[in-house]
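<given_protein>
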Amino acid sequence: MTSNTTARDTAQGTDERLHAAGLHAPASAVLSVRDLNVRFNTENGVVHAVRGVDFDVMPGKTLGIVGESGSGKSVTSMAIMGLLPPTAEITGSVRLQGKELLGLSDKAMCRHRGSDLAMVFQDPLSSLTPVYTVGTQIIEALTVHNPTMSKQAKEARAVELLGLVGIPSPKDRLKAFPHEFSGGMRQRVMIAIAIANNPRVLIADEPTTALDVTIQAQVLEVLHAAQEETGAAVVMITHDLGVVAGMADDIMVMYAGRPVETGSVDDIYYSPRMPYTMGLLGAVPRVDVAEKSSLVPIDGIPPNLTQPPTGCSFAPRCPLASEACLDGEPDLRAVAPGTGHRAACIKSEALADVDVHTVFAVPDVPVSRFDSLPRHERKTVLELRDVRKHFPLMKGALIKRRIGTVKAVDGLSFDIREGECFSIVGESGCGKTTTLLEIMEFHKDQDGEVVIGGLSNKQAADAKAKSSMRKELQMVFQDPTGALDPRFTVYEVLAEPMENLGMPKAAIRKRIMELMELVGLQADHVNRFPNQFSGGQRQRIGIARALAVNPRLVVLDEPVSALDVSVQAGVINLLDKLRAELGLSYLMVAHDLSVVRHISNRVAVMYLGKIVEIGDVDAVFDNPRHPYTRALLSAIPVPDPELERTRERIILQGDLPSPLEAPAGCNFATRCPVFAALPPARQEKCLTLEPALEASATDQQFACFYPDGELDADMVVVHENH
């Protein structure tokens, strides 16, 4: 029996059962989902990926669906759109303005997809066809649902749509191909295609995950503008609780394929009644909070959905679980009469006004022995002096000629002291990762000087000197799966760096057992392979490998960006603990400024290969002097709905300048809102002179001629309650 036949046969019975239970859809709902179930037949058995999902979305409103990876968020959206494979067994009811969608043929669904229902996918590059221009793909979306529309009208509508989503010179960009756009602009094109036919429902599946924070702010602003333009209901699927705090009207928290808490955005954020929701909120670091406190880790992993849960699916990970929790899976129940706030927890009434730190076992904030020492009294672990890395920009197939220079790193100087975490932040392409590679290269022919543990790269003439340096400096990579050899057991992965140093086997075995305990893994797991661990556990193995040779400095390249927020919290707490216990220093590259605020002592903000602001993390975050730093910080969503409604958000216009058209003066002038507000006489200074890092009364330095310049009102977007 096919999924369509199954859905058709059960839709009428489901509707009658739900009506009898008082769960019929409100007349005003544009999209109503009732008792949605999705099963996949796999080699290991039938996976019940979505289990009994119910929700309604009203016109002009936004529903946020949040939860960890594997909770069923994306499968729910794909089932609504009719994009799951024919082998998926789908039951329940999905109604669009009263019309049942489940059970429709693919041809019948095509009349709704792109017209009444539209979707913005996570990866715009794979969603756009690379061999067609952007204009062709927008016009195609119009042609499918408007066959009588004239060619001129379609082109005019395509230009209008690109302008609406903020693409500069929209008429000219119609002829561009997707690879000629940046990631943020490609996502804008996807939004333009999605809203081309004024859909009634717009589903956005992790639309900003792969984007820089400044581009994320632009895309969210475009989504908000698109919703106002079309009056569409929006379903926002994300793992970022800050994003939904500012966008959503209602929240549905999913775990193990089913909703475990639903309610208004204020209900969920200010009065969560499900331990899982409380854990998710407590696991998020905040960019606006200076006070140091440990994050809430949610230990364990989600259940295997090939076996139906016999009790609460969250019970194995819940610190409040009791015998009663194992007696059947709890249904969503009203938390407060007269509200839509519901939670699937038998102890929800007792969780009113309970602090998350009293529910979960949150470790104390670790204190390093170096924290009491002034910075100038600590030894220098790493120092960079005027480090540069320029790449020639070449053109031509047979005969190549140089047409420009990419200044990936352009004169960096900073130092890191004992027991300190130093972070480098900035947009993609600013030179963060190239800086790390230059440090790890440690070659005497480099342009500039790198000093590690008192040893300069200019002295690293032989393999012995380099080996000595490698012992002082180790690296943890962004993707733990790609960084660990899948053919090696954990024991072999951890032993390799120590074998290279010639350590005896007995000492290696003892050290490996110490490392497993140090990073919170079981010692008897050393004979497993990396693919037998979760993502967070693999990252812990990567950290253990970096610590194997007792380095003084650990380089962290986006160490938690690939992890769920609950797993991320555990890894961040571990890094804090190791820094305090072992006296480690960290050099971290990250795009998430909330993580940087939580773990770092000092921070450097990079733009086009240069540091534009540097100093103590609290000083820079609480009183940013450079306009670029202010824009970065304003773009970070905060998991606080009330604050998000009134926060000023600085939307940077345009993209990074091309290396072929690098500004002669300040690199940031082409996008700077302060520069745009200056009179022409003062703008001339920014266009002709390059600002140097200026020291303030504190440790903070910034490269700006007008650090206290006021922003024009039209340069600042104020998010109001919608």
Summary: The radius of gyration is 27 Å. The first strand starts at residue 31 and ends at 42.
